[in-house]
Amino acid sequence: MELKNALSALAALAHEGRLAAFRMLVQAGHEGMAAGEIARRLDVPPNTLSSNLSILSHAGLIESRRDGRSIIYTARYENMTALLEYLMQDCCAGHPEICAPLVKVALDSRCGQEGCA
Amino acid sequence: MELKNALSALAALAHEGRLAAFRMLVQAGHEGMAAGEIARRLDVPPNTLSSNLSILSHAGLIESRRDGRSIIYTARYENMTALLEYLMQDCCAGHPEICAPLVKVALDSRCGQEGCA
DNA sequence: TCCATATTTCGACTATATAGGAAATTTCGA
DNA sequence: TCGAAATTTCCTATATAGTCGAAATATGGA
């Protein structure tokens, strides 16, 4: 991941409403969620949400497809991974104390449960 | 880590100059680096840097101590770890595809070398 | 005590981000 | 073809962030 991409992804996530929307889309999985549904659940005006989704989208963190009258947004997992990798590699090179504790978190995620690895 | 802390850390890092300063401090290790030295290396006016260091500091990503006429800044590794954990736990819960690839990155960091784990 | 050094604080200006009303666009169904 | 539904685009107002000159503060040395 390039510096510019990392900066725009960080900026996109550094906003309460956008982080909430992104989380929701991550949880929604590959099916994704319609813009209107997100707006309803987060209780924000549709146009406000739309512009925030656009920012997340330009940052590469989500993408959209049309389904009938709805626009379905989905999280771009691979780019979130790339951002985390970027921060980890960048910050941990030669300084294992930052990243070492993350092994457990990452391992736990592999089975989606605590105490599985 | 609380939502508010994560947001302020993300916002602090979402700035080219601040990310560069933070990286430099991570590389500098526990010894840290004087404000003036950072400003010189990044080629930014001292007062501009100072306000950016202040933002990183309020976000909990760095801290400072006085040493004679200099102020030495150091990275707060534990809070960077907490931010990464927050993003990983938050985003990866139930969706291993984001975090699973990070195991390798985290493991590699443990010995500071590729292909060591 | 006085001066040079290191850094921060203050203040003012510019730039960018945010929010949301109103209108436009796209799609579906009647 | 018309109207309702879903979403975005346009626009404007307001708020927040960023920059840096100038002045202030703290320190060490002569």
From TrEMBL, chains A, B:
Presence of the UniProt keyword Transcription regulation in the record: yes
Keywords assigned: DNA-binding, Transcription, Transcription regulation
CDD domains tied to this protein: HTH_ARSR
Molecular function as annotated in GO: DNA binding; DNA-binding transcription factor activity
One Pfam family it belongs to: HTH_20
Gene3D superfamilies from the UniProt entry: Winged helix-like DNA-binding domain superfamily/Winged helix DNA-binding domain (1.10.10.10)
Domain of life: Bacteria
Transmembrane segments: none
InterPro entries linked to this entry: ArsR-like_HTH, HTH_ArsR_DNA-bd_dom, Metal_resp_trans_reg, WH-like_DNA-bd_sf, WH_DNA-bd_sf
SUPFAM superfamilies documented for this protein: Winged helix' DNA-binding domain
Domain named HTH arsR-type: residues: 1-95
Keyword Iron-sulfur: no
Name of the molecule in the record: Transcriptional regulator
High-level lineage: Bacteria, Pseudomonadati, Pseudomonadota, Alphaproteobacteria, Sphingomonadales
